[in-house]
Amino acid sequence: MTQILTDRRDVDFVLFEQMKVDKLSKHERFKIANKKTLKLIISEGRNLAINELFPAHVAGDREGCKFENGKVIAPESFRKPYKLFQEGGWVSLAEDIEWGGQGMPVAITYAANECFNAANCTFMMYPELTHGAGKLIEKFGTDKQKSLYLKNVFTGKWGGTMLLTEQEAGSDVGAISTSAVKNYDGTYSITGNKIFISSGEHDLTENIIHAVLARVEGAPAGTKGISLFLVPRIRVNDDGTLGEPNDVVCTGIEDKMGIHGNPSCSLSLGDKGNCKGTLLGKENKGLQAMFIMMNEARLTVGVQALGCATASYLHALNYARERRQGKSLMSGKDQNAPSIQIIGHPDVRRQLLTMKVYVEGIRSLIYYLGMCIDQMHVSDNEDEKAKYQGLVDLLTPVAKGYVTDKAFEVCNHGIQVFGGYGYIKDYPAEQLLRDCRITLIYEGTNGIQAIDFLGRKLGMNKGKLFYDLLGEIKKTITKAGQAAGLEGLAAGVEKAVEKLKKTAGILMKAAVSPKALNAFAFAHPFLEVTGDVIMSWMLLSRAVIADDRLKTKAGKKDIPFYEGQIKSVEFFVESILPVTSGKMDSILAMSASIVDIQDSSFGGK
Amino acid sequence: MEILVCIKMVPDTAENEIEPNSDGTDIERDDLVYSVNEWDNYAVEEAIQIRDNIGGSVTVVTAGDENSEEILRREMAMGADKGILLSDEAFLNSDGKGIATILRAEIEKGKYDLILTGAQADDGAAQVGGMLAAMLDIPYASLVSSIEIIDDTRIKVGREIEGGNREMNEIDLPCVLSIQTGINEPRYVGIRGIRKVASLDIPVHNASELNISPDTVGEAGSMVKKIDYFVPEPGEGAEILEGSNEEIIEKLVDLLKSNGGIK
């Protein structure tokens, strides 16, 4: 059977040859995570993904969610997969066993979740948001909050959400107006309206624990006066049993472009004056707390986008191998020349190779970040921990902003390879594009990611994080430079790295000068060129391993795989990095037109 | 009830393109991804359900190389209590009779009430179950599609018969049953199960521990030898239906009707 979700050979390659995830098993924390166990996890995850989650992808899209009398009914087709997913322990693969997690490395979680998302990214929003809420409780919860909620959330018995957005507080979360008043018993009465709450109300779980941002009476204005609260949909008694329903009412769900199987809810809190929550963490420190989780959620969005991209690529690839249309361009005027599979046409090959390099580069980046988090967990050296934390901090906007941009481009190519069939619902390409589109928006739009990257991450520790990253890239370039046949490719990546360094220096200075607006007008292009250079790094690192295997011990079936790795970086260096270089020129020119053009000059009125 | 399930590692047809090797004597086995034979998985599920209903234990056993340990661990993660690997260089390239000989030796070391095999393997000849029962001189039923436990000494089994018919049989224990797919819905393996078996040691029994003479198994003991393996040439009469999905479905229905496939 052809593979339609993730390429198993490539997943194994990144996990075990590029990232060497199984080496984590030498640490006590991951002692059972040996190669056999990790491979079994990937195999069984794929089983569940292909047999249960994937068939519910189209079904969930067509069914959608229903809103009836304040209740949201999740797609019928999601019920069995959710039960199996939850019972199988997949909700919190990397969390503490004591609290219902499975104690596995984050890197293997990303690999499993990539496959689940490739099968059905809409379905995955339920457990992934639940897991995110669990992380908040784990990190900031009191012993009582943990004992009441955490295990049921981490195991997915109960759902979890994040309630940030309000009508007037989207990207500017400091503008929220939901209020919290402290009660005599230490609880808080919450009042306000939240919108766009994914999984905010549904019937897949018996309870939902909302993490709510609100403002305590008298708190400072803006982001410094925001606190975080735990608000269960159904109150939980001290003995863990379910009590009275809380005053949290769903007032409607959105009609969206994609992710139809997951409800985006409007929630009214305390309409009857009876919505009670408990403070999570400290008063007025809610936003910092939420952002710790948000950074992780951003990586989750990257995994989601990767899932859409890999599925779109493999569907397109299989189609291109089967679909016969047109004759070879080389057959000239020969009317009797046979039709060929469309994979034989240069333009289709260009698109397939473009899809391949992004899917593979993104997969490597995402698993790499998982490994950074794991190594941070097992390291007993503070400097090393700081290094990995720095890499995660710096690369999070890339793994969210750049990755989702490129994943969407991959899905777009996916439709194009199918031609007219890509535009109709008989094939999955159009749904993957629709479902993927949200990843560029939620958990901080990609514009916000670009500002975060240029405005905060790039300058952290006087640019040390960024220069450390360039140092890591240089190590790979050095290795590649020593491998006969890869020297030219290594030089190509090195040239791009040098130019990126120069571009970053100039842009960082401009960002703190009177020309700051001009600099930020190019924040997104800068995030893009940085992402391109990181892709070339990841692809070069793959090629170094592939080259070594080809020269030493590649099995018969492995030869085309490894050769494909070298072709990927060759294509990226020769065909994409020159464009990246041109984009860097455009950033360096820092055209003032974007800022200078009058609002009225945009026309339209 | 003590239940033994005989399982086999086979190339995973969901993960591999299967093709003959260059000399045409076998499939190309370089870099294949393997998994547990599908029929065996149903047999293990059935065994787990019986154990969960009436008590006892489920042991999974396989004859193979050290990599076969992975499928034992997988079936233990699914819920089997014990695993045993039968492995020895002398076992390599055994035919069906050789495999049955190896399994019999292990079975005679223990005391099992019920022995299950898959009805066949993706790459097999559906022969081990029957041979094993004959060697053990105990009753055998093939293509079993339902099992009902009557008491400690007897069970009732349903069998699939050609044309969609079924028959019911009472069989004395101990016995060997070969299990058909569809008898149940095998459970998924979750992470909890995987964690539970991750660091368990699985015992390995070799030829001498099983008192097996090397010349009765493996290549030496094989009376059936595979001499050719190939993809048949496409025959005459194949027709590719073309058109939209609706048109193809309509043509297919017409064809099935005109050829007596459906009424």
What do you see in this structure?
The complex is a heterodimer of chains A (605) and B (263). By secondary structure, chain A is of the alpha+beta class. Chain A has helices at 8-18, 35-53, 55-63, 79-87, 106-140, 143-154, 286-322, 346-378, 382-418, 429-437, 446-457, 464-481, 487-511, 516-521, 523-552, 558-589, 593-596, and strands at residues 66-68, 71-73, 159-163, 179-182, 188-198, 208-216, 227-232, 234-236, 242-245, 248-253, 264-269, 276-279, 324-327, 339-341. In chain A, a hairpin with a 2-residue loop joins strand 1 and strand 2 (71-73). In chain A, helix 9 crosses helix 10 and helix 12 runs parallel beside helix 15. Chain B is α/β, with parallel strands linked by helices and 263 residues long. Chain B is built from 7 helices and 11 strands. Chain B has a 9-stranded mixed sheet, with helices on both faces. In chain B, strands 2-3 form a two-stranded antiparallel ribbon. The longest helix of chain B is centred in the N-terminal third of the chain and has 17 residues, at 38-54. Chains A and B meet through helix 2 of A and helix 2 and helix 5 of B.
Give me the secondary-structure topology.
The complex is a heterodimer of chains A (605) and B (263).
Chain A: H1 8-18, H2 35-53, H3 55-63, E1 66-68, E2 71-73, H4 79-87, H5 106-140, H6 143-154, E3 159-163, E4 179-182, E5 188-198, E6 208-216, E7 227-232, E8 234-236, E9 242-245, E10 248-253, E11 264-269, E12 276-279, H7 286-322, E13 324-327, E14 339-341, H8 346-378, H9 382-418, H10 429-437, H11 446-457, H12 464-481, H13 487-511, H14 516-521, H15 523-552, H16 558-589, H17 593-596
Parallel strand pairs in A: 3-6, 4-6
Antiparallel strand pairs in A: 1-2, 4-5, 5-11, 5-12, 6-7, 7-12, 8-9, 10-11, 13-14
Chain B: E1 2-6, E2 9-11, E3 34-36, H1 38-54, E4 57-63, H2 69-78, E5 82-86, H3 96-109, E6 114-118, H4 128-136, E7 140-149, E8 154-161, E9 165-172, E10 175-179, H5 191-197, E11 204-205, H6 218-221, H7 245-258
Parallel strand pairs in B: 1-4, 1-6, 4-5, 5-11, 6-10, 7-10
Antiparallel strand pairs in B: 2-3, 7-8, 8-9
Helix pairs in contact in B: 2-5, 3-4
